[in-house]
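Input record (Table S2, row 323):
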Amino acid sequence: MSDRRNPFQSVIDAQFQSRWDSGEALRTLLDDFFDVHVRSGLIPSATVAEIAGFSSHQDGPIAFKLQRNFGRVNRGVSSRIHPNPAYTIPFKDGMPCFCCGDVIAYQWPGERGFQINPGRPLIVLPNISPIFLPHFTLVSPAHDPQMMDLHTMIACAHLIPGGWVIQNGPDAGATNPWHYHLQVFFEPDLPIQNCPAFPLSSTVDQLDHPALILKITNPDIAIQVAADYLKLGDTRRLNILVRVIDDECHTYLILRDTRFRTALYRSGQPGYAESAGIISASSELIYAQWMAEGCQRYCELMSDIRPRDEETEVFKSTRVRSF
Ligand SMILES: [Zn+2]
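Output record (zinc ion complex):
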């Protein structure tokens, strides 16, 4: 049985921890770390081959990339269901939390991790249902809820320049809102990067996009705008993407509200990836639908989840413009 004081003890890989601690070139280390899990079969090589290809779609400023990702399953599904230790808060449908260390050690004994500390300790794990190659999930060692935390994201982005650090809000794409987690990947050509933008103020741009997306290059202002938006009410959510390029920190805030849902996505609430322009089709039928309907379908999906209430308009036209 694992040590209750450190539930990730048996997950931590001494070799990768040592490579991280010694400051080895990060991209190589992370590539190796991901490859270990592909070679072990934890991430099926068929999935890797499948998701490597994208079909690109563009109509004016609207662009998205479509991938087949038929193996993408709920991360909580394992052939070995942990007997739910008393100190683990159950995940949905009575399943144990799949981000807790003792559950990972039991359900996916081949999964390894190492700890980083961007202002708070986080365990780096491979994302075993990846969208990108490589793709990582960073989880809190403790079973803490998914609070939005741009401070940690920015600190993390500075640790992995060029890499994307993302966080989904609960009921806005986060599959496990009961356990704090971020994701990291290195996609160099995310459609959101190339979306035209217009200024709302001297420091805040809005993307010309059917979702409501702000781009902010001043990290302090990004933190303030994110906090102010969430204060508008209990239904307010964010998807956040952060990346450090040439020492400049780029933050994308996707303004969300759980009152606005879509019939074009299985849970009604897609997350950061779809808003950033990546659509993962979970079957050949859905892939064919996206191929046939292209940007029109993408616009509809994004328009569905855009907050369209008056409070959001006032927030955008007064509060955001004051920065
Ligand atoms: Zn947990």
